[in-house]
Amino acid sequence: MTSSQSREVAADVVVIGAGAAGVCAAIAAAKAGARTVLVDAGPMPGGELLTGMAVDGALNARGEWILGGVGRELFDECERLGGYIGPLNDWRLIWYVCFDPEVMKLAVARLLDKYGVSLLLHSMMYEAQSHDGRVQAVRLLNKSGTVRVTAPCFVDASGDGDLAVLAGAGFDLGGPGGEFQPLSMMFRMSGVDTDALLDYLCCAPENFALGESDAIRGGRSDAQIAQEVRRQGQPTVFIKGDGPLLAQAIERGAMYPTALIMIQPTSASRREVCLNSTRVANVNALETGALSAVLGPLAGQIEMGVDFMRGNVPGFESAVFSGMAPRIGIRETRRIHGEETLSEQDVLQAGKSDRGIGKGSHHVDIHQAGAGQVRIPVRDGGSYDVPWGCLVPRGLSNVILAGRCISADRAAHGSVRVMGPCMAMGQAAGTAAALLAGGDWAGDVRRVDVAQLRSRLSGDGAILAGTH
Ligand SMILES: Cc1cc2nc3c(=O)[nH]c(=O)nc-3n(C[C@H](O)[C@H](O)[C@H](O)COP(=O)(O)OP(=O)(O)OC[C@H]3O[C@@H](n4cnc5c(N)ncnc54)[C@H](O)[C@@H]3O)c2cc1C
Prior knowledge:
By secondary structure, this protein is an alpha+beta fold.
């Protein structure tokens, strides 16, 4: 190989980033008939869907589905492959969807293949060739040398908004004081005794986060909620950082400071759960050296967390470490400036819009340093609409945003970043991109007829109305 080797690829739609948003965008574009190329810098499509975490924001806190279409098709594929657990109430703030992340790897690969999406893995997009706000091509670097990919329409699902920024879009980065939500490494433990864990919850509910919104609490006491969790029969509980068990462990140095230890099931046959608790805050993940330097500390926290669980939490005495995420989890980097901006009020008031192309329902969820976390529920356990303009980067005519880089204020981002809305936005972006590539709306993202797009999305199973 020499560095001068270069290849040309022509597509109808190019999707940059194969996380939850990009996978759904690529599937939607391919289903709509577009020759679709899905590019990722990493080795495996699926992003955080593969780390063990549940999908939040697929249902609202009343238990109504707000995600349909491609996202649901991925869950159906998991079910077909024997790895679907399904929707669970966390009895704290939300409902989420649990599944086996190993099976999700298969499901993502099977559906991309089924719909004929061309994958370019191990390929970093590093350049956008654009003129007057229109991207003609992107350049990728991979083992084959450089690849120039041309298309009439692009989806930026890179999480970081790399394509939009390379093409000239403006953005906000993290918080106003240079703060960033923590980087975390998800990990799993198998051999968990669910009955013993739920018995402990019922004996000592003061150690657990329960009923943090009226929609979930519904007038119940903590003891009553603990009984509901036991009735649900799944190992899904949240050990709280300010409860005696965890607070005392943090105090004596037996645990690192953290807001919660979130425990969710991944496999009944392996008696396995995923744990979300590790954290290193205020690192700019766009600085690759700083991001990489966090791996060691996060691995150290996992070791400590496993010891803590085995030594202190009934049900975990014989559990073992069984896996960690394939990459450091990044919650927050850039928010691209769009034609419209999702606001904290839109989220908290469950705002509806006739320009909505997908829904979210997750609370404003901003993890902070140490044991800090902001958690503000959506009104009445409802959902809000994500308006199309939040996916349209200001000043660009053929790039559509999807996923955690869309246009939102920081608080709204703390909600819309979760995977349910990312998947819904992915479907909307991929569908619109395919139609634009086919010549609809003069090929300009700013001229999309949102009513037409909504009607097409509804026809394809997306949920845009009819829920709280
Ligand atoms: C620790 C943690 C816990 C979380 N917990 C939950 C939870 O329980 N439930 C939930 O629903 N959500 C949760 N979230 C949020 C959610 O997982 C993410 O916000 C969401 O998955 C983002 O999806 P995305 O597709 O927008 O971006 P990403 O998943 O970040 O995907 C972007 C992809 O683009 C690729 N890429 C980036 N730049 C380039 C480039 N220049 N060239 C080529 N490829 C590129 C990356 O390799 C990556 O695969 C959590 C997040 C973290 C980090």
